[in-house]
Predict the structure of DNA polymerase III subunit delta'.
Amino acid sequence: MYPWLSGQEQQLTALIRRRQLGHALLLKGVAGTGKRELATELARVLLCQHTTVASNEQPAPCGHCHSCQLIKAGNHSDLHVVTGQQRSIGVDAIRQLTQVLSESARLGHGKVAVIEQADKMTEAAANALLKTLEEPAGEATLLLTSAHPERLLPTIRSRCQQWLLPVPESDVVLRWLSDQGLEPNLAALNVNQGSPLGTRDYLAAGTDKRRQELLQQFALLAKQPQTLTSVQSGLLEQPVHLLWLQLLLQDALQLALGLSSTGLRLVDSEALCRTLSQLGPERLNQALTGLLQLRQTLQPGAGRPVNAGLQLGQWLNDWMINIR
């Protein structure tokens, strides 16, 4: 288990042992904190044949009983997982799950269903799950995970015991990244909104180098206006690139306001931020406001489709006028 989840795991395992865990648990928290892994571990505890042994000295999951071995092999008949890999979770998948849960447990030790990224359920799928959440058959336990619990129907949330997984402390994550053979980087962690797993994948893919290159180009636009087209295409590569730019401007505004450099999000780009801070708070605030509006406009489902290149081009043209 990830080090930042060990305490959560122990608390939830204790609830299972005392039979105080609800029949439906919603694990919520930002993406990349390990909700899926924690749900899988709880499923092991719930199905382990030693969980209900009278002596609490016996650890669970033990890793040795028949149930634990079946889970390890990936073919436990009483563990059912609905993955969130697809774009949405449809009603057929949920109906199939509820049908399976209504049947008797094959090993006589209860049934567990894990629904990953439960907020991807369609409204019909969520409604199909309601009855099972209200009256689960036998000893069935449902474990739902979500990085966007606000997207779940209120009727789903109200029927679940909700458990928030907070964003881990940065020093814990940085040590863990170092143990993974990666260069600890607080700026990279901030870019990924504190997500340990997201930061791991980001660093392993070498994406942080691209961030530094692109922001360097942007900061030097006043001296190198010929790179404007390159900057525009770079910012359009991925939606997160506009977040990089937003964080840069926010840090620059913080310095322009005369505030301490403590708390800068892009701690490795302080020199760029100081260069941009010379534009003054009024210009930076104006640019930042426009950028935030642009990012909002480009969000999926924000309204009718817009030409991202055209919108960003207009913002960059305004920026070039601003820095002259």
